[in-house]
Amino acid sequence: MNILDAIDKKTIDYKASGRYNTDDKTEYIDADGQYYGKSMLIILHNNSDDTLYIYIPEGLMLVSEDTVIQDMLITKPVYALLKPKRTQTYPLYAMCSEIHDKVPATHTKYTISKNNDEKLVSIAQTINRSFMQNVIGQGAVWAYTDNATEEDLRTYGARDETLELTLNLLAKAGIKTKLAEELNFVPPVKIEANKDSIIHSLSNDLDYANTVLKYKKENIELNPIAFYSGIGVIILIIGTTTYLAFRKRKNKNDLT
Questions:
Q1: What confidence category does residue 147 fall into, taking pLDDT thresholds of 50, 70 and 90?
Q2: Cα–Cα distances in Å, from 28 out to 25, 34, 55, 238?
Q3: How far apart are CA 110 and CA 56, in angstroms?
Q4: Is the pLDDT of residue 169 over 80?
Q5: How far apart are CA 205 and CA 214, in angstroms?
Q6: CA distance to 38, 148, 178, per residue, from 160 (Å)
Q7: DSSP letter string over the chain?
Q8: What is the pLDDT of residues 7-55, one digit of tens each?
Q9: What is the largest CA-CA distance in the chain?
Q10: Per-residue pLDDT reduced to its tens digit, 42-66
Q11: Which residues contact 6 (CB under 8 A, 6 or more apart)?
């Protein structure tokens, strides 16, 4: 059951929050709970008497109740198993969708939006398929949601290599951004094979293979005249060698 359906039917209750603990003196790296990676938590409670399988797809938006805190985009799906009347907590891979707002913390409450941007869904799906739960994927989100510039992304850890991968990710997702214009990025050309082109290619390959075989046959097969002439030469050489050897031996016997 999709989580939105389960919420509408009141089959489950949920609470969502950030994972970053502002009271903890431990320094977090981004992938462990600030603005990307496993940055969010969701607590699900099964209200029913049945075991439920709840699907949380990538592309859902988590909206902060505090407007100065970032809204978060879920970038990796979760398949949650909920036993009857039980509560379970799951970490969520999510990325910030507001580059200049504050990071979500454990005390920040979130709701799941029912209205999702199709382009953000495409970006989230591409991030998940490409295993880019990192600064590359986060840069792609900000390039779309905040029109982030090269300078903006470099401030948050982007480098030449990651910027190129971010632009490639956006191209795969089918998203055009000002960042691509700023960096004069040209998407890789996609070569799509159709049935006609495949048949044409196979036909060319077969013609080439037949040509090679014909050439080999014409140039490797022995001409009969050349073959028998060669045999004659070999017999002559063997005969001559045998005769000379026999004569030498006879002369030696005559001397003794």
A1: very high
A2: 9, 7, 28, 90
A3: 15
A4: yes
A5: 14
A6: 25, 15, 17
A7: -BHHHHHHTTSEEEEEEE-B-TT--SPPPTTBTSSSBS-EEEEEEE-SSS-EEEEE-TTPEEEESSTTBPPEEE-S-EEEEE-TT-EEEEEE-EEES-TTSBPPBTT-EEEE-S---HHHHHHHHHHHHTT-TTHHHHHHHHHHHS---HHHHHHTT--HHHHHHHHHHHHHHT---HHHHHTT--PPPP----HHHHHHHHHHHHHHHHHHHHHHHHHHSPPHHHHHHHHHHHHHHHHHHHHHHHHHHHHHHHH-
A8: 999 999 999 999 887 666 454 445 445 789 999 999 999 999 999 999 9
A9: 125
A10: 999 999 999 999 999 999 999 999 9
A11: 12, 52, 54
Nearest-10 crossing angle of helices 160-173, 135-145: 60
Give the pLDDT confidence score for residue 20 in this predicted structure.
Answer: 80
pLDDT score of 205 more than 80: no
Q: Which residue has the tokens 């029109």?
A: 147
Range from 104-108, 191-195, 212-216 carrying the lowest mean pLDDT? 212-216
